Amino acid sequence: MKAIKLAFPIVLLIISGIFLIASFNVPKANLGNPNGPLYFPIGLSVLMLIFCIGYLFQELKNLQKEDENIRLLIAGRTPKLIFVTVLLGIGYAFIFEQTGFLIATILFLGALLFFLNGVKKWKANIIVSLCFSFITWYAFSELLGVSLP
């Protein structure tokens, strides 16, 4: 139980450290201040590191308290939901470039809704995935003028 409570702040700490290191690889600007593009990502990653360290110390301080919510989280359907959502997100990222925004989003949302709601609500799943995808595509491509793949 203790490892689970500490895992998330440690993972966030690692991610913010990687983000800080990657921030130094941002190319310098050709016009104006050459270090201008570095300020925001470095500042953000330092802020992330500060908050992650604070979060880690907070979890270390509360480590002795037994949290029933974590026990329920592990025992319930939540790990399966997280795992399937992450897998579908990775699949969405892989098919996005080949199929384009519209088809990839319809497939991703449809699969996710069928997993969450089940087959009994197939009409609602299809309607939501189609409507959301088309409305989002229309808003970006027609109203905002952003070209989607």
Shape field: flat
The oligomeric status of these chains comes to single chain
Strand content: under 5%
Q: End-to-end span in angstroms? A: 44 Å
Overall pLDDT: 87
Sequence of secondary-structure elements: HHHHHH
**Biggest beta sheet summary:** none
pLDDT < 50 stretches? none
Q: How many E strands? A: 0
Structural class: mainly alpha
> In which range does the helix fraction lie?
over 70%
Q: How many alpha or pi helices?
A: 6
Our Rg estimate from Cα atoms comes to 21 Å
Task: Provide an overview of this structure.
By secondary structure, the protein is an all-alpha fold. It contains six helices and no strands. It has helices at 2-23, 36-61, 68-75, 78-99, 101-117, 122-143. The mean pLDDT is 87.
How would you summarize the topology of this molecule?
Blueprint: H1 2-23, H2 36-61, H3 68-75, H4 78-99, H5 101-117, H6 122-143
Keywords:
single chain, 79% helix
